[in-house]
Amino acid sequence: MNPDKIDEILDFHRAQKEKIDARLADFRRIWSEGSDRDLFAELAFCILTPQSRARACWPAVERLRCGDLLFVGNAEEILNELKNVRFKERKASYIVSARNQFSRDGKLSIRSVLEGFSDPFALREWLVENVKGLGYKEAGHFLRNIGLGEDLAILDRHILKNLVLLGVIDEVPKSLTKKRYLEIEQRMIEFSKATGIPMGHLDMVLWSKETGEIFK
User: Fold this and answer.
1) Is residue 123 a contact partner of residue 114, using CB atoms and an 8 Å limit?
2) For residue range 190-210, what is the model confidence (pLDDT) as tens digits?
3) Which residues form the domain of 89?
């Protein structure tokens, strides 16, 4: 562990705590008050984010939603709105696939599926195994963004880089297998307990420290 960096992150957390609490409350409201369409929009966002900037992906989701294409458009129509999103052909097909998967009698029914799980770790595992385009990072990101996954790690490059600086891990792995992902997540959980920074806060602290903002 790096004591200087740990002190720095503790100070940063104290300064950002109120903003982080407010953002996490926003996410929890999506689950408590949001519609199936709201939940699906968050899923589509997380499908789009791999190797793309979150700030480019969310406007794409908003454009799709505004024109209703997110809920009725085919892959080609969705593709046309994915400006500045990498691998957009594949991701457009993933969105359509997920929409079909979470529809019952032509109507989105994603909440009823998610409600069948009481454990966010088990739900993440199910999402990774069953929803095209979701790995552990994306599934955890989705659950956090709808208020169901604050104890899950979202291991993107910003988080991994800062975990190295803090001495939580030795290096940024070249690839993240399931085993390696879960090992790093466990180390992050232990660091969270040691510092008193909740996991949901720790993710946002490390992300905002690197990017300069608290977003999604």
Assistant:
1) yes
2) 999 999 999 999 999 998 887
3) 33-145
Interatomic CA distance for residues 47 and 131, integer angstroms: 9
Q: Is residue 216 part of a domain?
A: no
| 39-66 per-position pLDDT tens digit | 999 999 999 999 998 889 999 999 999 9
Same domain as 181, residue 131: no
CATH for 10: 1.10.1670.10
Tell me the catalytic residues. Answer: 137, 156
Sequence letter at residue 104 = R
- Which of 145, 173, 202 finishes a domain? 145
How do the residues of the chain divide into helix, strand and coil, expressed in percent and rounded to 5? 70, 0, 30
CA distances from 146 to 5, 37, 41, 99 (A): 30, 12, 10, 17
Q: Taking a C-beta distance cutoff of 8 angstroms, is the pair 168, 180 a contact?
A: no
Please give the full DSSP string across 34-56, using - where no structure is assigned: --HHHHHHHHHHHHH-TTS-HHH
Query: How do residues 101-153 score in pLDDT, each as one tens digit?
Result: 999 988 999 999 999 999 999 999 999 999 999 999 999 999 999 999 999 99
